[in-house]
Task: inverse folding
């Protein structure tokens, strides 16, 4: 008889379950702006521009806006984060290599 061992450990912290606050699928994304934040690594902005193309093709009424913090070694500034928060219902951050 073969006995299998499950290598996953026990979860020590309580899971924080949340519901999505914004459903971009409804109404083809109408009224939704997705903020895309590149972290400044090479190709991070190029990668997110491809993500924007796919989102806009899939959800024709959706709008995307791009930000690039310019330096992967620093956090995004408060002014940039406030701008994203004020103008977008959804945000995606990504990095390049």
Result:
């Amino acid at each position: 008889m073969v006995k299998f061992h499950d290598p996953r450990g026990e979860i020590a912290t309580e899971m924080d379950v949340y519901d999505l606050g914004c459903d971009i699928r409804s109404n083809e994304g109408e009224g939704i702006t997705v903020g895309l934040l590149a972290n400044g690594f090479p190709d991070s902005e190029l990668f997110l521009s491809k993500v924007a193309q796919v989102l806009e093709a899939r959800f024709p009424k959706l709008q995307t806006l791009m930000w690039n913090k310019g330096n992967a070694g620093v956090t995004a500034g408060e002014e940039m984060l406030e701008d994203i928060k004020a103008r977008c219902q959804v945000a995606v951050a990504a990095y390049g290599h």
Notes: Residues 40 and 70 are 4 Å apart (CA to CA). The mean pLDDT is 89. Strands lie at 33-38, 63-68, 90-94.
